[in-house]
């Protein structure tokens, strides 16, 4: 039986991970620590979690916990992950991995000291494992020919004060993470390899976050970013992520010498066209309809030794944190940044 402790029961954990864990026959939810004891008690009662801890440190030090799932904001991840590993706990942390590249490297170094422990990050779902496999298979089988260019766009619609929580807009809480740019980079890295150079422009069109009670605070993270970059494979790429651009598709376009693939980030549909075809056609993704992916499943399976850690490893996390930090440096100094940093 694997005894799991929860640190930070936010919406993502309450709606997805905790319900799945509570249904697993080989898992016991043995503890929870939340921002307040009262909020922790409410979640504990709902999901029959055995122990409420007064602090996250008490939880990771407990002999009643074998594995820790961290659902807090990025500024807490490094300390919580390293403390969990030092207390011989498997650990799954919410994305984004950390505040910056330095923290991510420290987390990776700590995980390498305990090869017997599972260290994993909640992955991006753009694309998922099955979607990713289908795209890789098509490219490997020559559908697009030689890869030439990637265009990735994540548009989150017209600006709304209520669409994004404040911590995502505040660099003191989120570090160099900008909107869903890191998620896009993570998916691209798994499909095509690491980035070798980055040139970026960022904008902050809505500098204040207004809360429901009418109060407001300053935002310090851009709400629009454009990146031109190159990968180590020689592919060039354009990435755009925006919280202000509406009525535009969110998609990954893969251009080659013989064809094109289009993956729709929203509908999860895949389309393709080779140069002898006139129109894009939808391409089936085997198993997609039956797919029911949750990283908590894979975390537990990895602890049990049934699968290797993937989606997302700490090594991959370091790579996307390096990319997001390079984007900020490039934007701040108006220069093309060479990777690795």
3D structure, described in words:
This protein has 341 residues and is α/β, with parallel strands linked by helices. The chain folds into two domains: 2-124 and 294-310, 3-Layer(aba) Sandwich (Rossmann fold); 129-290 and 320-338, Dihydrodipicolinate Reductase, domain 2, CATH 3.30.360.10. Helix content is 33%, strand content 25%. It has ten helices and 16 strands. The chain has helices at 11-23, 37-47, 56-60, 74-86, 101-112, 129-140, 171-174, 181-192, 295-303, 314-333; strands at residues 2-7, 27-33, 67-70, 90-93, 119-121, 147-155, 195-203, 208-210, 216-218, 224-231, 236-242, 251-256, 259-264, 270-274, 281-283, 337-338. Strands 15-14-13-12-6-11-10-7-16 form a nine-stranded mixed beta sheet, covered by helices on one side. The chain has a five-stranded parallel beta sheet with strand order 2-1-3-4-5, sandwiched between helices. Strands 8-9 form a two-stranded antiparallel ribbon. Strand 8 and strand 9 form a beta hairpin. Helix 4 (74-86) runs parallel beside helix 5. The mean pLDDT is 93.
Question: How are the SSEs placed, and which strands pair?
Answer:
Blueprint: E1 2-7, H1 11-23, E2 27-33, H2 37-47, H3 56-60, E3 67-70, H4 74-86, E4 90-93, H5 101-112, E5 119-121, H6 129-140, E6 147-155, H7 171-174, H8 181-192, E7 195-203, E8 208-210, E9 216-218, E10 224-231, E11 236-242, E12 251-256, E13 259-264, E14 270-274, E15 281-283, H9 295-303, H10 314-333, E16 337-338
Parallel strand pairs: 1-2, 1-3, 3-4, 4-5, 6-11
Antiparallel strand pairs: 6-12, 7-10, 7-16, 8-9, 10-11, 12-13, 13-14, 14-15
Helix pairs in contact: 4-5, 5-10, 8-10
């Amino acid at each position: 039986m694997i005894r799991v402790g929860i640190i930070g029961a936010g919406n993502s954990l309450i709606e997805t991970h905790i319900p799945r864990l509570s249904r697993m026959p080989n898992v016991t939810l043995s503890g929870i620590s939340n921002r307040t004891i009262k909020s922790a008690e409410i979640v504990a009662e709902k999901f029959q979690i055995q122990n409420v801890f007064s602090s996250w440190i008490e939880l990771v030090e407990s002999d009643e916990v074998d594995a820790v799932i961290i659902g807090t904001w990025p500024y807490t991840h490094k300390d919580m992950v390293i403390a969990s590993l030092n207390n011989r706990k498997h650990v799954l942390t919410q994305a984004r991995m950390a505040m910056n590249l330095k923290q991510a490297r420290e987390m990776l170094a700590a995980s390498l000291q305990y090869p017997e422990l599972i260290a994993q990050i909640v992955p991006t779902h753009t694309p998922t494992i099955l979607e990713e496999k289908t795209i890789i298979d098509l490219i490997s089988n020559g559908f697009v020919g030689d890869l030439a260019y990637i265009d990735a766009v994540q548009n989150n619609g017209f600006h709304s004060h209520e669409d994004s929580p404040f911590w995502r807009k505040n660099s003191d809480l989120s570090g160099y993470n900008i909107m869903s740019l890191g998620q896009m980079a993570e998916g691209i890295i798994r499909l095509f390899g690491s980035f070798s150079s980055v040139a970026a422009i960022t904008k902050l069109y809505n500098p204040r976050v207004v809360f429901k009670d009418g109060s407001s605070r300053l935002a310090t993270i851009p709400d629009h970013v454009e990146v031109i970059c190159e990968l180590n494979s020689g592919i060039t790429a354009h990435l755009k992520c925006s919280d202000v651009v509406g009525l535009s598709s969110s998609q990954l376009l893969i251009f080659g010498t013989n064809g094109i693939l289009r993956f729709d980030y929203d509908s999860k549909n895949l389309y393709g066209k080779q140069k002898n075809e006139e129109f894009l056609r939808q391409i089936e993704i085997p198993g997609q309809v039956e797919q029911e992916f949750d990283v908590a499943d894979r975390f537990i399976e990895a602890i049990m030794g049934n699968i290797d850690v993937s989606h997302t490893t700490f090594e991959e996390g370091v790579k996307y944190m390096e990319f997001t930090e390079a984007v900020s440096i490039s934007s701040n100094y108006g220069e093309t940044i060479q990777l690795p940093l």
